[in-house]
């Protein structure tokens, strides 16, 4: 018998363990699942993630910490999620945003989005510029050329 006997029935409820209630959050399950999926896509273990994400005061978080985050049994300060997103090379909105943000993008789209972000160009501005100089603009009739030929 251990040093401190515990009545296990005190900690359990019919719908699950009582001790879990204050820590379990549905949004944390969604975010944690996204982290796990992205981590596994890269072939990283929990240990690999712990080596990449540093505490602000130095050192690393434990594998157990990230395991709890991935299972939705804990939450982290916002800066931890931002560092995780940075290390996974995804936008923070992919981790924390709504489900439509989760749409898969091709590698080419990822390259384009990262280029636009680093260049400081808004994607809508880039699309407008491309529409003005793209193939559709070049194949359309030129108003000045067609009006002078018709006479």
Give me the secondary-structure topology:
Elements: H1 8-11, E1 12-13, E2 16-17, H2 26-41, H3 46-52, H4 63-71, H5 78-88, H6 92-96, H7 107-119, H8 123-133, H9 135-139, H10 143-149
Antiparallel strand pairs: 1-2
Percent strand equals under 5%
The whole-angstrom Rg is 25 Å
Helix content: 55-70%
Distance between the termini: 105 Å
Strand order of the largest sheet: 1-2
Beta strands, count: 2
Written account of the structure:
- The chain is mostly helical.
- The chain folds into 2 domains: 11-102, 434 Repressor (Amino-terminal Domain) (Orthogonal Bundle), CATH 1.10.260.40; 104-134, no CATH class.
- It is 58% helix and 3% strand.
- It has helices at 8-11, 26-41, 46-52, 63-71, 78-88, 92-96, 107-119, 123-133, 135-139, 143-149, and strands at 12-13, 16-17.
- Strands 1-2 form a two-stranded antiparallel ribbon.
- α2 packs across α4 and α3 crosses α4 (63-71).
- The chain is elongated and about 55 Å long.
Search tags:
151 residues, mainly alpha, 434 Repressor (Amino-terminal Domain), 2 domains, two-stranded antiparallel ribbon, 10 helices, 2 strands, disordered C terminus
Brief digest:
With 151 residues, the chain is mainly alpha-helical. The chain has helices at residues 8-11, 26-41, 46-52, 63-71, 78-88, 92-96, 107-119, 123-133, 135-139, 143-149, and strands at 12-13, 16-17.
């Amino acid at each position: 018998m251990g040093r401190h006997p515990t009545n296990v029935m005190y900690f359990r409820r019919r719908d699950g363990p009582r001790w879990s209630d204050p820590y379990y959050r549905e949004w944390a399950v969604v975010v944690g699942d996204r982290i796990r999926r992205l981590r596994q896509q890269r072939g990283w273990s929990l240990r690999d993630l712990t080596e990449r994400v540093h505490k602000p005061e130095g050192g690393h978080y434990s594998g157990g910490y990230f395991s709890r985050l991935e299972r939705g049994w804990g939450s982290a300060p916002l800066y931890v999620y931002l560092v995780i997103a940075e290390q996974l090379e995804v936008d923070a909105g992919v981790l924390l945003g709504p489900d439509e943000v989760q749409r898969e993008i091709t590698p080419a789209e990822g390259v384009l989005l990262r280029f636009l972000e680093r260049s400081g160009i808004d994607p809508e501005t880039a699309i407008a510029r491309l529409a003005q100089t793209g193939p559709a603009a070049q194949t359309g009739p030129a108003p000045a050329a067609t009006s002078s030929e018709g006479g």
